[in-house]
Amino acid sequence: MSAESSSKLNKLLRDQPAGVVLCSAWLVDNGYSNDLQKRYKNSQWFESVGTGALIRFGDQVDYLGAVYALQTQLGLSIHPGGKTALALQGKSHYLELSPKHAQLFGDQGEHLPLWFKKRDWGLSVKCALTNFLPPELGLIELSHKQFKVKVSDPARAVMECLYLAPKSQSLTEVFELMEGLNNLRPASVQKLLEACKSIKVKRLFLYMADKAKHDWVNYLNLDNVDLGSGKRSIVADGVYVAKYQITVPKALEALA
């Protein structure tokens, strides 16, 4: 390997943390040609994890190392959300030692690269692409291994759970998650509620926060929150909650 190639390799190894995916297109944009990448692979500095993606040779890369690449190299808004984001922040009541599922969210019009979808990350990864919330709102940076990824903050994560409910997410479980969020910042919740496009999500969020008797609810200004008009039946054969004009599961309404 030439001195120039070796110097560029050292810079790449120094600047990029271990445990992450490196996208070939991003490498090309930063001066690492496809030919140079091939030489690095032949010299066993890097190995392919699918078309268009590399990792350090022998490195252990999980799905968060791939999400890092999606966010920092491809400029996507895809991030861990819902129960996954809460679990990563230690705010999930069901914390699994080795989770079997990961839920990602991204903006409408984005897509996961083929290398991400084809790779076995050791768990099932689902991705919901939706614009019910702005892609930049309600995200925080979380440290993982030697790098950071953006994940949903607790308020956004609960809203994402409610977006998936009741079809893909139990409403009673979401309420149990909501019960633990007694220290949300009203200003942050206010911004999310004002920006949220889903009437269902907003009504359920406020209903659950009310039911959990969280103090921060008292500091919200609902005059600026569009809660729509008319009744919403979230489930069939449920209980009607007049204050929020929603029909919720009997088991949820029965919870103290």
From TrEMBL:
InterPro entries documented for this protein: AbiEi_3, AbiEi_3_N
What Pfam families does the database record attribute to this sequence?
AbiEi_3, AbiEi_3_N
Which superkingdom does the taxonomy of this entry point to? Bacteria
Residues in domain Transcriptional regulator AbiEi antitoxin N-terminal?
6-97
What is this protein called in UniProt? Transcriptional regulator AbiEi antitoxin N-terminal domain-containing protein
Give the organism, scientific name: Aliidiomarina minuta
